What does this fold into?
Amino acid sequence: MSVLPSTQVGSGGYFGTWLVPQAGQAHPFDPTGILMAVNLPLPIPEHLTPIKGLQLGCAEAGIKKPGRKDLLLMTLAPTATVAGVFTTNRFCAAPVQVSKQHLASGKGIRALVINTGNANAGTGEPGLVNANMTCNAVATLLGCDAAQVLPFSTGVILEPLPVDRILAGLPAAQANMKEDNWYNAAECIMTTDTQPKAASRTAVIAGKAVTLTGISKGAGMIKPNMATMLGYVACDATVPQPVLEQIVRRAADASFNCITIDGDTSTNDSFILIATGAGELIIRDAEAPECKALEAVIMDLSQELAQMIVRDGEGATKFITVRVEQGRDVEECRKIAYAIGHSPLVKTAFFASDPNLGRILAAIGYAGVTDLDVGMLDLYLDDVWVARQGGRHPDYREEEGQRVMKQSEITVRVTLARGTASATIWTCDLSHDYVSINADYRS
It folds into this structure.
C-alpha cells in the first residue's frame, strides 16, 4: 500500500488542507471566541474527497432550533455494503434498535437518515413508531424498502421526536444531494460540538486507487462502548458484508472505543462503515493482503475522527494520551488507562496545570486489577519520570511536572512490569466550561 502525496498541517496524521482559527479570533461555531477545540484545525470543504456511489443532502428542518442544518440524508449505490457497531447502553435509542434490525435483515442498505437536536431515546413505543415512520418516508422518496434505510438521531434524551418536521424536511435534503457535500454533512450532525469533524484519505492498494472520507460528531457524554458520538466512514472499494463487519468491529475497538471525555455512555452511539463498490479496489477475502491494507487505512482514519471528538470535548483545554504498557493482557491495561482517563480528580488537576500526580496513582490502584504489584510500577508524564517502583522518583521535581502539565497535549505513560500487553486511550481535562455547557444544554 502507498498513500498518495497530500498536504499535511500540524500533527496527528491529518490529510488535506485545513483552516486554522487564529488566536483571539471568534470561532465560526462559537461566536464568543471562548470555546475552541484543542489543536484541531477546521477542514476545508474542497479537500474532503467525494466517494463514488454515495451522495449527501442537508436540510434545515427546525428540529430543535431554527436556522441551522439538522437533517442529513445519505444515499448509496445498489453495490454498497454497510456494517455498524452500536452503543451497549441498555436504554439504547429507538433509531439504534431500528438500525440494528434493518442491518440484520440483509436487504442491502440504500440510505441513511440522521437528525440532530433530538435523540429519540427514552421515548418508548412511540419512539420506535417515529423511527420507522422516518424510514418509510425515506423509502417512499427513494423507491426502496423501508428496511433498506438506517435512521440515526442525536440530541436531547426523553423528548418526543418531532417526526413531522423531519418528514417535512426530507424533500429539501433530497434536493440538496451531491457527492461533495461532506463538510455540510459534518456540520449537520453537530450538537454541542464547536466545529465539524471530517477527514479523507487516498491510497493505492494492490495497484488500485481507493478513496475514503469520514465524519464524526461528539463532545460530551463520551465513554467507550461507544460515546455520544456518531461516526460514518465511507470508501469506494468493493467489500463483502461479512468482511466489512469484521473490519468495523476492529476499527471501532482501536478508535471510538478508546476515547473518554466524561465517563458517560450514551444511548445513541453508532459507528457505520460503508463500502460503495463503485471504485477500482475489490476485496474478496478478509485474509488477503489488500484487505489488511484497506483495514489499516480505515483504522487510521477512524482514529483521527475519534481523536477529533476528544479534542473538541465540552470545555476541553488539553488533549491527553494515556498509555499503559507491560501488562498481562490488554483488558487490564485498558482498565487502568480508563481509570486514569475517567477520574474527575485527575482531569481537574490537568485543567489547573497542577502536578498533583498522586491522583494518577490512586486511580491506578482502584482500577480493578486485584493482583497488581504496585511496587513494580513506573509512571511518566511525557519525558518526566514521576514515580519509580511505586513511589516518587528521587530525582522528580514538581516544576518539571508543572512544565508538562501546562502543555495543551500531554502523554501519561504507565509501565506495569508484568507482561507485554499494552493499551492506549485518549481523553481530555475537565474544566468549568464543561459544567456550564451541560447545565445549559436544554436551554
Remarks:
- The mean pLDDT is 88.
- The two ends are 49 Å apart (CA to CA).
- The CA atoms of residues 99 and 333 lie 32 Å apart.
